[in-house]
Design goal:
20% of the residues lie in helices and 32% in strands. The chain is α+β, with helices and mostly antiparallel strands. The longest helix has 27 residues.
């Protein structure tokens, strides 16, 4: 009995191999958990879901990330209101205005290049303007080849003076007392000339009238003291006067002949 009691008191053997395996597994598990937790603490993004891989060139526009090399978009954001751009305004000072001197005398003529004289001093040709004449009275002469000289006195004062010379207009108003010499005797009368023609006025019955173009001959013999008029396809008339010299006849002849020449060249007649 004592032997059996001794046997019963011997403790049974424990399965040490199983315990060792469990111990190793526990240690490995604790070590794995420790290492895994340490790695997640160091990289928080490691636990996030990895992005889905896409093929090159298939990146959607909404996910494209602009780089520094990409040019900025020129289109405004529709959510933002368009603000007016501020332009820099540069104020430019205007150049000082130079006021030209006032014209105090103007001379024009229907013949360009006519000579202008003021108080017998040549000052230029038409059209002519003066800005230097002071207040006062002046005599202006205007002349052109082939025309009679024009003369006018002007007063320079508050208002500008203006002279218009019409060389190409023919004025004619001449008359002279004459004696009509007949073959037998004579009669007195008056020769009158204007741009419409020439006429002889007398109380006798040989009065006549003729246009300037219809006079075939219009001459003067200074020594013979005789003015001769021959009407085309008509009579011939001879005139003298009671003066001691034929100067009056000479002036009459020269004035009428000059008017005839100008009218024939195209100048405009001024009718009486």
């Amino acid at each position: 009995m004592a032997l059996l009691r001794d046997v019963d008191e011997i403790p049974p053997k424990k399965p040490t191999g199983i315990y060792a395996l469990i111990t190793v597994v526990l240690i490995a598990g604790v070590t794995y958990m420790f290492l895994f937790r340490t790695s997640t603490d160091l990289d928080p993004g490691a636990m996030t879901e990895a992005p889905t891989a896409t093929a090159p060139g298939d990146v959607p526009e909404s996910s494209a990330v602009p780089t520094d090399s990409d040019p900025p978009s020129s289109e405004p954001d529709p959510a933002e209101p368009l603000l007016p751009t501020e332009e820099t305004v540069v104020e430019v000072e205007p150049d000082p205005v130079t006021v030209p001197p006032a014209v105090v005398l103007q001379v024009v003529a229907d013949v360009d290049g006519a000579d202008v004289f003021i108080d017998r001093s040549y000052v230029g040709t038409t059209p002519y303007e003066s800005t230097t004449l002071g207040p006062g009275r002046y005599r202006v002469n205007v002349s052109a080849p082939g025309y009679e000289s024009y003369e006018e006195d002007i007063e320079i004062g508050g208002e500008p003076a203006s002279i218009v010379v019409t060389f190409r207009q023919v004025f004619l108003d001449e008359r002279v007392a004459v004696i009509h010499k007949h073959r037998f005797g004579d009669c007195t009368g008056e020769l009158i000339a204007d741009t419409s023609g020439l006429r002889y006025q007398t109380s006798d019955d040989d009065a006549f009238e003729v246009t300037l173009e219809a006079m075939e001959e219009f001459t003067i013999d200074y020594l013979e003291h005789n003015l001769r008029i021959k009407v085309r396809d008509g009579r011939t008339y001879n005139f003298t006067d009671e003066q001691d010299n034929p100067d009056a006849l000479l002036v009459f002849h020269r004035t009428v002949e000059n008017a005839r020449r100008r009218l024939a060249s195209g100048d405009r007649p001024v009718l009486p």
